[in-house]
Amino acid sequence: MLAAPFAISPQDLWTLIGSPSAPRIIDVRRREILDSSPGLLPGASWRDPLEAASWPHGAGRWMSVVLACKEGHERSQTAAAILREQGFDARVLTGGYKAWTDARLPLVSKAALARFAPGQRSLWVTRRRPKIDRVACPWLIRRFIDPDARFLFVDPPEVAAVARETGGVPFDIDGVELSHDGERCSFDTILRLFGLESEPSLARLASIVRGADTARPDLAPEASGLLAISLGLSALADDNDHELLERGFVVYDALYAWLRFAASERHNWPAKAA
Length: 274
Fold this sequence. Notes:
Layout: E1 7-8, H1 10-16, E2 24-27, H2 31-36, E3 39-40, E4 45-46, E5 64-68, H3 74-85, E6 89-93, H4 96-102, E7 108-109, H5 110-116, E8 123-127, H6 133-145, E9 150-154, H7 159-166, E10 169-170, H8 186-193, H9 200-213, H10 223-237, H11 241-262
Parallel strand pairs: 1-6, 2-4, 2-5, 5-6, 8-9, 8-10
Antiparallel strand pairs: 3-7
Helix pairs in contact: 6-8, 6-11, 9-10, 9-11, 10-11
């Protein structure tokens, strides 16, 4: 069997981010560099590369890992070598953060992470029976902010109290920061606060979500389809909110992949003869 490649380019990594097959991304920059930087790679978390031997314990999902340091030198090389010794598919981000920013690829706001998702396995609280925005937001959080994020669904009057009790972040409910802002949805708010609203495909997805969630099908041709699918998934899931998330994530994975890689493709019948 051929060994997995030791390095991955920023563009190739960006192609994987936002998909269910995205690797675990570990930021191994020196603390002083991390502290002075404005952002992290989407979905990344910081760890000490000298402790890499202890990272995978209890984390079987980490079979694919990308290490990112300042420029792709000794910090990421050290961690990748240790993980590969243990049989992991560990790769170094070629050129590190410098190459990523030079390519003008998105970073997640470190200030927003410190406010809303400062540690491992962040906790978020919202209303039961999600349909559109409350499925889109968890998808966005898991794919771009914290891949280990947890979600609690409770009765609407209890969201604020449960958030206080658990230390979770309330969202998509009146009176909290991560909610609707005028005609814009909670999905829009999270994109803005975490510095992701300029990513073109996420911006287009936000228009689809907004159109479906606020009865504005004129905002995007796909909004009516998302509304129909979301209501159908809700009917199938009955009162199992986490099952609905699992099914709904497939829809948003597909929409995001279409926006990034297949939006220009056309399909018709009958097919024209070659």
